[in-house]
């Protein structure tokens, strides 16, 4: 068993000849939002997403962070910004589905931390990959404390629809799922994790995540 969804998305993006940073967009759009086609309501989920993008752009535009010796510092800066927008606990809970309730608080916390590290490894680093891709904000749908922000990432060669699903907690919009070209991050990981747990148990899933994290960190 393997955590194949990230590899599948990676292959898709590379197959479309996206830049390094365009590949990282599979978890959160990190690009300029010039050419937006919708008005942004103050306090809306769309404004929250764009606010995070602005902070990331400051990091990406810092020439210091493009130097190899500042790789760890740039990674930490990006992780800090992302942590304020991603609800890793909610994402982790949804990826485990029914299995989540079978875990005690310690196990849940351990899983969420590993899941966070696993995801952060896919969107940090390589800050020199930005090539001016743009994002169009298409529409925001809201139902109670839930919202979905529909966007399109536009490069020279293609356009990819990316939707962000958010949950409002303590007056803050937090991302709990990302849908890329119709493919849900949470749904795909739920299937992957369920198969791993069935084959090797929950501990086997933790071991698999640790292995993936170690390999990515080594690179």
Descriptive account of the structure:
The chain is α+β, with helices and mostly antiparallel strands and 219 residues long. 49% of the residues lie in helices and 19% in strands. The protein contains 7 helices and 5 strands. It has helices at 4-15, 20-24, 45-60, 71-83, 88-96, 105-123, 185-218; strands at residues 134-143, 146-154, 159-169, 172-180, 183-184. α3 runs antiparallel to α4 (71-83), α5 crosses α6 (105-123) and α6 crosses α7. The chain is globular, with a radius of gyration of 17 Å.
Instruction: Output the structural class.
Output: alpha+beta
Report helical residue fraction. 40-55%
Q: How many extended strands?
A: 5
What overall form do the CA principal axes indicate?
Answer: globular
Radius of gyration: 17 Å
What string gives the helices and strands in order? HHHHHHEEEEEH
Determine the strand fraction and express it as a percent band: 15-25%
User: How far apart lie the N and C ends?
Assistant: 22 Å
Chain-averaged pLDDT: 79
| Number of contiguous helices | 7
| Contiguous runs where pLDDT drops below 50 for at least 5 residues | 15-35
Keywords:
219 residues; alpha+beta; 5 strands; globular
Fold blueprint:
Layout: H1 4-15, H2 20-24, H3 45-60, H4 71-83, H5 88-96, H6 105-123, E1 134-143, E2 146-154, E3 159-169, E4 172-180, E5 183-184, H7 185-218
Antiparallel strand pairs: 1-2, 2-3, 3-4, 4-5
Helix pairs in contact: 3-4, 5-6, 5-7, 6-7
